Amino acid sequence: MGQELKGRIKTITDFGAFVDLNLSVDGLVHISQMSRRRIDNVKDVVSPGDEVMVWVKNINRERGRVGLTMLKPLKYKYKDISEGDALDGEVKRVENYGVFVDVGLEREGLVHVSELSHEYVKSPEEAVSVGDEVKVQVLKIDVRKKQVNLSIKALLEPPEVEEAEEAKEIFTEQVEEEFEEEPMSTMMAAAFGQLDGFKKPARRKKTPKKRKRNRNKAMMDELVSKTLQVGQE
Question: What is the SS3 assignment for 183-229?
Fold first, then answer.
C-alpha cells in the first residue's frame, strides 16, 4: 500500500476515473480521492488521456480491483510543525489575495500577497505561478481549523542597505520640496506646537522664492533652538 505509480486516465464516470497502469487490471480513483478540495464534476479535474501520478490505496484480490488515490501522502501532521519552520512546497492555486501552497499537510497553506516579496506586489501572478516550487516559513498554525499561514519573503534576503538609503534620500527631497511650497505642515505644527506655545503661521500671499527660503530657514532655526531648550530643562 502507498506505492507510487504513473498511469493514464482511461475512462471517466460520475463517481471517479479508471486509470491504465499497464497492469492486468485498471485502477479506480474515486472522485473523493482526486483533490483535498470538494469536487462536483470529475471532468473538472481529469480527462481521458491525461497522465497522472497515483498511489495505491487498497487492493481487492478477490474482485481483482485496485483502489487508487491522487492525493499525495502527507509529509506532516499539524502537530509535527511549529511557527518559524522552513518548508518546501508547491504553488497550487493563485488568488487575488495570495497563493495556496502544498507543503505536505492535510490542507494547503496560504501565503498572503504581502508575504510574497519584500517589494510591493500588486498581483500574486507577478511573483509566482501554479506549479512553482517554493520555500516558505510557517507564520501561524491553527490546528483546530487546519489552517496555516506561510511566508515566502521571510526566507528571502532583505533589500540592500544602499537601496534603502536611496529611498530615504528620495523621500527627504520630496519632503523638502513640499516644505518650500508650504512652510509648515499640519503634522509639524501639531508636533512643535507644544514647544513654547508655537502655532502654525497663517497662510500669506506668495513672496519671492529667496525671501521664502530665508524665512523658512529662520523658522527652522527657531524650532531647533526651542527643541534644545526643552531638552535641557
Answer: CCCHHHHHHHCCCCCCCCCCCCCCCCHHHHHHHHHHHHHHHHHHHHH
